[in-house]
Structures are given as structure tokens and as C-alpha cells.
Write a structure and sequence with these properties.
31% of the residues lie in helices and 17% in strands. With 480 residues, the protein is of the alpha/beta class. The protein has two domains: 182 residues, Alpha-Beta Complex (Aspartate Aminotransferase, domain 1); 249 residues, Type I PLP-dependent aspartate aminotransferase-like (Major domain) (Aspartate Aminotransferase, domain 2). A seven-stranded mixed sheet has the order 4-10-9-8-7-5-6, sandwiched between helices. Helix 3 packs across helix 10, helix 6 runs parallel beside helix 7 and helix 11 packs parallel to helix 14. The longest helix has 20 residues. The chain is globular and about 75 Å long.
Length: 480
């Protein structure tokens, strides 16, 4: 039996707010990518790993190509190319602010990623920080240098909100750091309600929007969110830029995230010491030559996603998620993971375990025999996986605007084949990762190292590898 034939048929039509004209989904680079299987065939790549990193939108790639001939160092340059790039950078700053509904006096700081943004903000918080235990490591570990408390999420969202309210009432807290959507289960938190609870206690809120921003509208002004952190590589702009958007006061008075050129108003030398007068944010935290192309890419992604983020994209992804969750529920031995029993909304992310099959082996099988890309492991959310999966690794399938119903059906069919018939190839743990043995696929199609077949050792995020060698060099315990 093929799961593809039993999955529910979903007819999807997209219309804009006026319901008059179909709204197309933006094109992505690599939609026609074909990848090798271990049996020598090539198939279209089913990329179900978009929650880790999303391929570039075609509009993003085109815009970067337009900017490249003008590439020059920004600010303080009189040359025409420098002036053009300065305008590109500062326009990108305004575009990103509009994309998340920033207030007029909010500041947009370009960073490398969500992780970088949260670590930047950690150096600016004038007090203690509170998080939930469901967070990505970026939002659990960024605050470890200060006073950090962790609240355990309850079985329901309502009870979790009560726990947050109690924790914020119990002692003064400067900042509540919370995810917008779980990177493991896709479940979405009621952000406006959380902000209201926090503000009632005199606490600011930073939203880790890495997983939410590619799927849902974020409106800082409407919800009252104080800070938003996001990543370009999740937003179909994989050119190495993220952003921290929010209130100026903490950012203007904190020490620079990185000290260096561009972050200062003046530098003097006296008594054998260099003294700096720092610029206000955003430049205060953007020392060094900025990633102009990354900022341009992020802005292009924001402009491209803007028209579809309220209509076409969410409906497309909800239809895919319905198909995926229904299909997973029909496969014996497959166990989808959830945090809450009452979550009203999810982005298109689903994680699961498969009885009798290690997650890494499942992922290797899906890639080697079916051309499907998924993620396996603990997804940099160890406390959450300990809670909902007993500490076991899981498999994660994540969808986006480039995902098709064929991708979903191929995954479901492949999983059904795995649990009913097994694999057709042998697999073993090599260099810490499950791999097909032998693996005839060329891991270096660009011939960059001249040694096809060699792969670097791949370690998981602070875990033991599958054969039991502990490669964690240090550990930080976060106390509730």
C-alpha cells in the first residue's frame, strides 16, 4: 500500500485580500534540483529541512546579483559605488523594520543571525532574564552570563501562561525571552497575551522569531513586543545576516557588542590608553565592515514575502501540514511530538520518532533511497526533547513556500515502506553520523577538495554520538 494514494486530496486555490486575483508563491532557487540516490538514479530533491535553512528566493538571488557590481565599503566613502551601497544598506534597515511592524523610534541592528541578535541583547539587559524550557539553545544559553531563570512549560498553553505570570510576579524580571514558534513542533505561542502578562509585571519581551517570521506576520507595534530577533537564512535569504529590532534605550547605553571601526564617534589616546566615544545604536553594535550583500538579501526577502505572508503562504503551508500530520498518524510506529494539548496554531513543522529505527538512520535512509532531506537529532533543544521524547533523537520535517504535496507524499510513502519492508541498503555510524554503506554518491560535486568520498566528522549539538563517545567539551547548567 502506498501512503500517497491514501493521503487526503487537498485542492488549494490562493487569492489576495480582495479575493479577486490569484496570488502566486515566490519562486526559489534550486526548485528543480536533482540529487543522486545510492542506486544510481537521480530524483528531484524533496527539501523538507527548511526550518534549518531555507534556500534563496529567486528575487533575493537576482537582487544580490544586481548589487554585486556596485559592491563597496559603506559610509564615509565618496565614491559612487560606496554611496550606492550605503543607500542599499540603510534602505534594507528600513525595509526590515517595516516587515516586522517596528515603531517609529525602534532601531534595526544587523547581526549574523538570531543567535547573534540574542547574544547582543544579552549584553544590554539591565537585570534578570526569564525563559521557558522549550526554547532553542540560542534562547537558553545567550543569557547565562547574567541572572537567568527557566520556567517549565505546562501541558497546556493556558497553564503555561499561568506559570509565566506567577514567575514574573514572584520577583522583578527585566526581560522575558520567548520563542514565537517551536523549532521542534511548530506550535505557536499567543505572543500578544504573553506581552500583556509581561508588561503588567514591568517586564520587557524579546521574541525569538527565527521560526515564526518565515510563516506568520509579526507586528511589533500592534502586539507591544519590545524586541524581535530573526535570521535571514530562515527567511529565504541565506547570505549571512540577521537582525535585532526593538527599543533604542538599552541598545544606546550598553557596551558595544563588538568594539571596532564604525561603532565610534571619536577615539582619543591619553595616558597610554585609547578612549572611545561610542555612537548610538545601530552603529554602536555594528563594528567593522557590514555584510552589505546579506542586508540587501534580507531586505529583498522581506519585500518578496510581504504580499503573501497573510494569505498565500500560510494557507499553502496549513494545507501541507494537514496532509503531513494526517499521513503520519496513519503509519504504525510513527509518533509525532507535541508540547501542548491545546495549541491553536502551528507553522509547518513536524517532528516524530519511529519505533525501532534510530532517527539518524531514518534521515540517512530518506536521503539515500528517496532523495528527501530532513533533520534529525535534538534540534538544539535538549531540555524540550528530554520532556517530549524521553531524551531520544527525533526526525523533523519542515515545509515552506517551496514545498509541494508531492514532497509530503514521498515522505509518507518512504516512511510507510521503512516500517513495513525495511531498507534496501545497509547503514552504519561513520564519523558520528548514520550513513549508507557503501555510499556511491559524490559528496563534493564541485570538486573543491579533489577527494570525492571524504567527509568531515559531524558532531551533533552537544550530544553523545550514536556509538557512545562523549564529545561535549563543557556544559552549562541553567537553573530554574
Amino acid at each position: 500500500m502506498s501512503i500517497a494514494t491514501t493521503a487526503p486530496a487537498v485542492e488549494i486555490t490562493f487569492r489576495d485580500v480582495a479575493d479577486t486575483t490569484p496570488v502566486p508563491l515566490p519562486a526559489v532557487v534550486g526548485a528543480d534540483l536533482r540529487v543522486p540516490l545510492v542506486d544510481g538514479r537521480f530524483v528531484g530533491y524533496a527539501n523538507l529541512d527548511l526550518a534549518a535553512s531555507a534556500v534563496a528566493l529567486r528575487a533575493v538571488s537576482d537582487h544580490v546579483s544586481q548589487v554585486l557590481p556596485y559592491y563597496a565599503s559603506v559610509h564615509r566613502g565618496a565614491g559612487y559605488a560606496s554611496r550606492v551601497c550605503t543607500a542599499v544598506l540603510e534602505d534594507a534597515r528600513a525595509t526590515v523594520g517595516r516587515f516586522v511592524g517596528a515603531r517609529d523610534n525602534d532601531v534595526v541592528v544587523f547581526t549574523r543571525s538570531t543567535t547573534d541578535s540574542l547574544n547582543l541583547l544579552a549584553g544590554c539587559v539591565p537585570g534578570s532574564v526569564l525563559t521557558l524550557d522549550i526554547e532553542h539553545h540560542a534562547n537558553l544559553l545567550a543569557w547565562r552570563g547574567g541572572h537567568h531563570r527557566v520556567v517549565s512549560a505546562a501541558e497546556t498553553i493556558e497553564a503555561t501562561l499561568d506559570a509565566l505570570r506567577a514567575a514574573l510576579t514572584a520577583q522583578p524580571t527585566a526581560l522575558l525571552a520567548v520563542t514565537g514558534a517551536s523549532n521542534v513542533t511548530g506550535e505557536v505561542l499567543p505572543i500578544a497575551r504573553i506581552v500583556a502578562i509581561a508588561h503588567a509585571a514591568g517586564t520587557r519581551v524579546v521574541l525569538d522569531a527565527a521560526q515564526l517570521a518565515p510563516h506568520r506576520r509579526i507586528d511589533i507595534a500592534a502586539t507591544g513586543i519590545d524586541y524581535v530577533a530573526l535570521s535571514g537564512h530562515k527567511l529565504y535569504a541565506p547570505y549571512g545576516t540577521g537582525a535585532l529590532v526593538g527599543r533604542r534605550d538599552w541598545l544606546d547605553t550598553a557596551p558595544p557588542h563588538i568594539a571596532g571601526g564604525g561603532a565610534v564617534r571619536a577615539v582619543t589616546h591619553r595616558n597610554d590608553t585609547a578612549h572611545a566615544t561610542w555612537a548610538p545604536a545601530p552603529h554602536r553594535h555594528e563594528a567593522g565592515t557590514p555584510n552589505v550583500l546579506g542586508a540587501a538579501a534580507l531586505a529583498a526577502a522581506c519585500r518578496t514575502l510581504e504580499p503573501v505572508l497573510d494569505t498565500t503562504a500560510p494557507e499553502h503551508e496549513r494545507a501541507l501540514l494537514r496532509r503531513l500530520t494526517h499521513g503520519l498518524d496513519t503509519i504504525p510506529g510513527v509518533h509525532p511530538l507535541t508540547i501542548w494539548t491545546d495549541a491553536p496554531d502551528r507553522v509547518a513543522v513536524a517532528s516524530f520518532t519511529v519505533d525501532g529505527h534510530p532517527a539518524g538512520r531514518v534521515a540517512a535512509y530518506l536521503s539515500a533511497e528517496h532523495g528527501i532531506g530532513v533533520r534529525d537529532g535534538k534540534f538544539c533543544a535538549h531540555p524540550l526533547l528530554a520532556r517530549i521524547a524521553g531524551g531520544a533523537d527525533a526526525v523533523r520535517a519542515s515545509c515552506g513556500i517551496s514545498t509541494t504535496t508531492d514532497h509530503i507524499d514521498r515522505l509518507l510513502t518512504a516512511l510507510h515502506t521503512l516500517v513495513t519492508r525495511g531498507t534496501t541498503w545497509d547503514y552504519a555510524v561513520i564519523d558520528g553520523r548514520w550513513q549508507p554503506t557503501p555510499d556511491p554518491r559524490d559528496p563534493d560535486p564541485f570538486k573543491l577538495n579533489g577527494r570525492p568520498g571524504e567527509t568531515a566528522t559531524s558532531w551533533a549539538c552537544g550530544e553523545q554520538d550514536p556509538v557512545g563517545r562523549n564529545f561535549t567539551s563543557s556544559a552549562t547548567t541553567v537553573n530554574a
